[in-house]
Amino acid sequence: MVILILAFAYLLGLLVTAIPGGNYAILGLGILLAIATALKQVYQQKQFRKARIQQFIKQKETRKDALKDPIEFADKISKTPRPKMPFWVWLLAGIIAFLASVYLQIRTPQPASDDISNLILNSGNSQDLLITVRGEINSIPRLTRSGRGQFWLKANQVNEITNNNTPISVGRDVSGLVYVTLPLLKTTGLYPGESIAITGSLYQPQPPSNPGGFNFKKYLAQQGAFAGLRGRYISHDDSQPAPWGLWKIRQRITRAQAKLLGVPEGSLLSAMVLGRLAVDLPYEIRDIFVQVGLAHILAASGFQVSFLLGIILAVTQRFSPKIRFGLGLLTLLLYLGLTGISPSVLRATLMGLAVLIALVTQRQTKPLNVLLGVAILLLIANPTWIFDIGFQLSFLATLGLMVTVPPLMQGLNWMPPFFASLIAVPLAVTIWTLPLQLYIFNVLSPYSILVNIIASPLISIITLGGMASALVALMLPGMGSLIAQGLHYPIFGLIETADYFSQLPGNSIAVGRISLMQLIALYSLNLLIWGYFIWLNPDSNPRFSTSKKGLIPILFSVTLAVLIVVAPGWYTKTSQFQATILGTPKEPILVIEEQGKVTLINSGSQNTAKFVVLPFLNAQGVNEIHWSVATHSQLGLSIGWPLILENVPIKTFYDNPAPKKTYQATNDVILKTLNQQKGSYIPLTLGQPIMLGSVQIELLNAQPPVIRFKLGQKVWTLLGETTPNDQNQLLEGQKLTPTQVLWWSGEPLTAEILSVLKPEIAIASSNSIDPKTVETLSQQRTQIFWTGRDGALRWTPTQGFETTLDFDETDGSFL
């Protein structure tokens, strides 16, 4: 028990580093528990001795002796038994937790003094640097969503740096890992360990500029990288044959499986066998599987390791335990190398190693103790994995299989075991992983359990067949391809199943951001239910599993979990009134939230809609847009609407009436989708105000677009891209009036138009602002924001305008 407490203290010490001052709080908690335990022990000793004295005094034969010499008599009384949990255990646990937090800070990657990222800071300019870097490829090139090749480069030398056409340095030794992207054709034939030289733009990754956005800077830092390189040219010696490596074996397997199956079937099979890190799986397939809750099958994990280890142990039954151990260990290490050293595969490998050790020593293992021991070992080796989502989900899923599947199987004992397991396994995994998924992704997949139940037989067949295909392909690639081809129909059925459920209404529900306290509360419920079934209703009570009493705590906990997730978000949405200008360059996008009703102004491009607008709506828990307004008629500002409509229904769509020949096809898709969703399409009318809740909007000019908003007590004016001639025409037509908030694209504005608008606040949806315009606005004492510097901007009636950093820090993410 003491070891378990100390192990959990180490884990807790790593986790509390996410909370400012958490390490000191956990140390203080350990000291308080130690003091409380010591005082309790002293009190119990006194009470015990007092009770024993009174007991013997009451006895007639000892009363005289007790009265004659009570001190000597008290010494003869038996002492208090030793406490089950000494006070020093809690003190040591607090110290271990504190030291764990310090250890994590020490092991967190930091740029060295000669790290290549320092070149950006030393240049005095955060803009891109043109640079030539020499180094060694550290990974197999992968395909990015933008269609470029990507790999990690271990830099060792910089041959040239140019900033603003001025040479800064030549021939400098550097270090550090670099995230490199290149045109796809230029990455063909590259392999790990190859020395290359790349010329391109060095840049510093930035944190997300919008709530709910992907934190690219944090992702690179977790990999130990602090700079990126957009490569243009590459120089390498392709005359030398590539050296041998495990990547060649992996390539042999993936090529054999894709030879007859093609793409995406062959890529999906390889991903299910070796994990998605070992193969380029098309993003369309990956997104569908993630959306319906099948992302776990794309990661190499315990199923594949158990299958391989089972084959080795079955084939070597007649061998000695030492030989079986050696062959099993070799198999585990080989598979670990093929899949890439990821936390989930390491976890499965170490647990497989524990099975081999138990086989040699002929001892039984306790799965939970093994799981905890493996977690501690991995987190000692790399404590930063504690915040790796793959590490967290892998251990939580395994924990669910260990502690939740048995009681579920017992409750489903009226079903055949095969069908009971189809329900119990995905349900158990979901129970333990869903809270973390909601915390990280803010989205619930309602069909995930049903999809996993339906797809489980197909997944088993494909994985087992894929493993067999991979093993055969190592020696006979042609035969491996034939075995893989035999899996065409199961793979096709799996893809069609996932695609079908991804098309159903309500296939994903945005729950909004949940706080750390909500996450802790959800897992506390899981632990309470687990403890309830273990300690209060053990397996020795057969009637309990068939009675309805077991359903009462389950129903209560499910109801309470729903309230924990839904109630805070529902209260916030129904009481808040805020407008958020998203941090996008050249794309004015505004989201207005008023008492649960949402208005979306503009969609942006497809990439903006996918990586900015939709993540923001998910983070806000938006599942329906009541009003949308397309203020601009340009293709780049409206082409994202079809993607948004696929994910979030729109009740009423207001459109700029200017000619739309540039995106007629996109407009047809919008009309078709709105018709299917029974939404309304209404062209805006010049000079006719419309009410979107309490917000009034009026189209003053169609081309260039000029829109006036009234939010609360403030008047906003959205000015589209205009030339000086357009601005003069707007002034001549007297279509502009003074405004409190000017929102425009950051391009030059004449002094005349600014003298008419006289804004108190000017906001540019741009990475930069025309200097002369800034000078004129400053002379008018106008407060200036721009999304390239400030990120997203949020306005509320009480707080006014806040930047991304301001309202991210005050949103209570740790409360």
| Percent of sequence in beta strands | 15-25%
State the shape: globular
How would a textbook summarize the main sheet? 8 strands, mixed
Strand order of the largest sheet: 16-15-14-13-12-11-24-25
Span between termini:
31 Å
Count of helical regions:
31
Alpha-beta content class: alpha+beta
Percent range of helical residues:
40-55%
Low-pLDDT residue spans: 809-815
Based on DSSP secondary structure assignment, what is the total number of beta strands? Answer: 25
What's the average pLDDT? Answer: 83
Report the C-alpha radius of gyration, rounded: 32 Å
Question: Please, could you describe this protein's structure?
Answer:
This protein has 815 residues and is α+β, with helices and mostly antiparallel strands. Strands 16-15-14-13-12-11-24-25 form an eight-stranded mixed sheet. A seven-stranded mixed sheet has the order 17-18-19-20-21-22-23. Strands 1-3-6-8-7 form a five-stranded mixed β-barrel. Helix 25 (641-647) links the parallel strand 14 and strand 15. 35% of the residues are buried. Mean pLDDT is 83; it is low at 809-815.
